[in-house]
Amino acid sequence: MTTLYPPVQPKVLQTNPQFLPTFEGDAIKLTEINGSDEGKEGITVTWENLWVTVPNGKERKPILKDLSGYARPGRILAIMGPSGCGKSTLLDDLAGRLSSNMKHTGNILINGHKQELAYGTSGYVTQDDAMLSTLTAGETLYYSAQLQFPDSMSIAEKKERADITLREMGLQDAINTRVGRWSSSGLSGGQKRRLSICIEILTRPRLLFLDEPTSGLDSAASYYVMSRIASLNLRDGVRRTIVASIHQPSSEVFELFHDLCLLSNGETVYFGPASDANQFFASNGFPCPTLHNPSDHYLRIINKDFEQDAEEGLGKGVPAEQAIDILVKSYRSSRIRKQVKKEVVKIGESDSGAIKKRRTHAAFRTQCLVLIRRSSLQLFRDLSNYWLRLAVFIVIAASIGSIFYDLGTSYGSIQGRGSLLTFFISVLSFMTLVGGFSPLLEEMKVFERERLNGHYGITAFLIGNIFSAVPYMLMIALIPGAIAYYLCGMQKGVEHFLFFTSLLFAIVMWVESLMLVVGSISPNYVIGMFLAGGIEGLMILIGGFYRLPNDLPKPLWKYPLYYISFLKYAFQGSFKNEFDGITFSLDQYGGNKTISGREILTETWQLEMGYSKWVDLAIMFGMIVLYRVLFLAITKSKEKLKPFVAAISSSRA
């Protein structure tokens, strides 16, 4: 039976789980569905006596306290509660995404079995819509399809699946619209959220987790997004299990939920059918007033952050903390909880069959090629990244060329060449950081989401990141480098010029590698910029120009920091390339006295001449490889490092 979606009636709204929204063009309709669990194989998730704790000094603080419940196929479970109540923690625990500093006890079963969720059987939509801003909605989903589906599936089939998924979420009219960012126009907030959902339902997972899917959206956009999510239960005959944490849904959105889990301070206030929640609250003295949104009423009662508002809203002068205590104790002793516990045991004893891995990833080679193509397109279109840096470096190179124009070989040119090289290298490294860190963080957010969802691994990301950026890094090294090199009249010879540009290329690549390492542990942009900028500033300071090597304090500053400073080898290599082979006149003393560049390198600049400039360059590239390996190692263990960095930053705030 199909009926037009009815208007909201002037009464307390209740859920209507026998109806789910479907779409014909832009019209929303409600289609009656069978309430049984029959149909294609579904996934049931149960959790029993679940506790989650985090370190708190020498002890551990509970975040979730003795939770039990279930999520069944063909139904939407909404996890609700005030901020900080444990909604996202419960969602992460069920999805197997708890941070390493969190520990959980209790049982989480998938179809009655203890097992990890296989790739392709579940999807997780994060709260942040992490996507590359210059790609269109169609390109975003098409590249994702190439990463998620195996090579045995043809390109045409992958594109068709992407197009179908876009239509399912109502994005067919936005297929050529760029995602956009805060500084540029693009998809709306609701469209971005639907595109994020599209990415995770490409493989048609039978289990879908959503973290705050309506966050930042108005009521109309929220309903549209949740309606599309609810309609997934009617797709391809599969009864999907949908679990969503949600903060404050509208009454229309609340009607879409079949089951409700209300949390407060990590404890269950209510778990059961959403339609029975009002009866539970009313039986404990907190009925929902007529014409009020039920979800607003429930959240106001169990939110103790605004004590006075809660007291006035209750109309009885009952403090919010006391109301929460009444509800928690009532639920613990209620028939509803006993039924939930009985259902959890029943599901655990039934043998629904372990989840089998249904899909394989794209081959590693395919992943690398797709990531290279996708990143190259993003970099080409993003004017604020390499293109802006190139324009700035050209201006800086031209300015340097006019200030240090045609240095010659006079005695004054010795200091001039040293200052020129040091300044150019320092500015290049700092401007690369300033101009590149924000775009890199955007890319890394996408990488983190896709890696956690099993789309590809760290090595494929590194390969894609390097090969897509190499042409732009070469361009930045060659064009500004050539302008400064020939305007300043630096040492003639193709070999010297090629070494100079190779060194500039290595510097840009090293800064990119440093940003990867810092970005992998930094909790936000500001902390990352301070950390990376501090590292660069320290390396410039002890690089051997501002304080000569023999004058550096030996403990710490010279041994070991001077020798592990990347810019020490950059300064040293560039000085050897520029001074060695030139004879300078000592015109200030009169006569024809001269001094060789090699003497200046050893006596004035105190450089190590026991090995050639090419060894310095090789050491620089070796450090780049080391930084990339360090990024790989940190990323694999970042869940252990990130809480530590976050704790330090918060303690200093």
Automatic annotation (TrEMBL):
<dbReference type="InterPro" id="IPR017871">
    <property type="entry name" value="ABC_transporter-like_CS"/>
</dbReference>
<protein>
    <recommendedName>
        <fullName>ABC transporter domain-containing protein</fullName>
    </recommendedName>
</protein>
<keyword id="KW-0067">ATP-binding</keyword>
<dbReference type="InterPro" id="IPR043926">
    <property type="entry name" value="ABCG_dom"/>
</dbReference>
<dbReference type="InterPro" id="IPR027417">
    <property type="entry name" value="P-loop_NTPase"/>
</dbReference>
<dbReference type="Pfam" id="PF01061">
    <property type="entry name" value="ABC2_membrane"/>
</dbReference>
<dbReference type="InterPro" id="IPR003593">
    <property type="entry name" value="AAA+_ATPase"/>
</dbReference>
<dbReference type="GO" id="GO:0016887">
    <property type="term" value="F:ATP hydrolysis activity"/>
</dbReference>
<keyword id="KW-0812">Transmembrane</keyword>
<dbReference type="GO" id="GO:0005524">
    <property type="term" value="F:ATP binding"/>
</dbReference>
<dbReference type="InterPro" id="IPR052215">
    <property type="entry name" value="Plant_ABCG"/>
</dbReference>
<keyword id="KW-0813">Transport</keyword>
<keyword id="KW-1133">Transmembrane helix</keyword>
<dbReference type="GO" id="GO:0016020">
    <property type="term" value="C:membrane"/>
</dbReference>
<dbReference type="Pfam" id="PF19055">
    <property type="entry name" value="ABC2_membrane_7"/>
</dbReference>
<dbReference type="GO" id="GO:0140359">
    <property type="term" value="F:ABC-type transporter activity"/>
</dbReference>
<feature type="transmembrane region" description="Helical">
    <location>
        <begin position="525"/>
        <end position="548"/>
    </location>
</feature>
<feature type="transmembrane region" description="Helical">
    <location>
        <begin position="386"/>
        <end position="408"/>
    </location>
</feature>
<feature type="transmembrane region" description="Helical">
    <location>
        <begin position="420"/>
        <end position="441"/>
    </location>
</feature>
<dbReference type="Pfam" id="PF00005">
    <property type="entry name" value="ABC_tran"/>
</dbReference>
<feature type="domain" description="ABC transporter">
    <location>
        <begin position="45"/>
        <end position="290"/>
    </location>
</feature>
<keyword id="KW-0472">Membrane</keyword>
<feature type="transmembrane region" description="Helical">
    <location>
        <begin position="614"/>
        <end position="634"/>
    </location>
</feature>
<feature type="transmembrane region" description="Helical">
    <location>
        <begin position="461"/>
        <end position="485"/>
    </location>
</feature>
<dbReference type="InterPro" id="IPR013525">
    <property type="entry name" value="ABC2_TM"/>
</dbReference>
<dbReference type="InterPro" id="IPR003439">
    <property type="entry name" value="ABC_transporter-like_ATP-bd"/>
</dbReference>
<feature type="transmembrane region" description="Helical">
    <location>
        <begin position="497"/>
        <end position="519"/>
    </location>
</feature>
<comment type="similarity">
    <text>Belongs to the ABC transporter superfamily. ABCG family. Eye pigment precursor importer (TC 3.A.1.204) subfamily.</text>
</comment>
<keyword id="KW-0547">Nucleotide-binding</keyword>
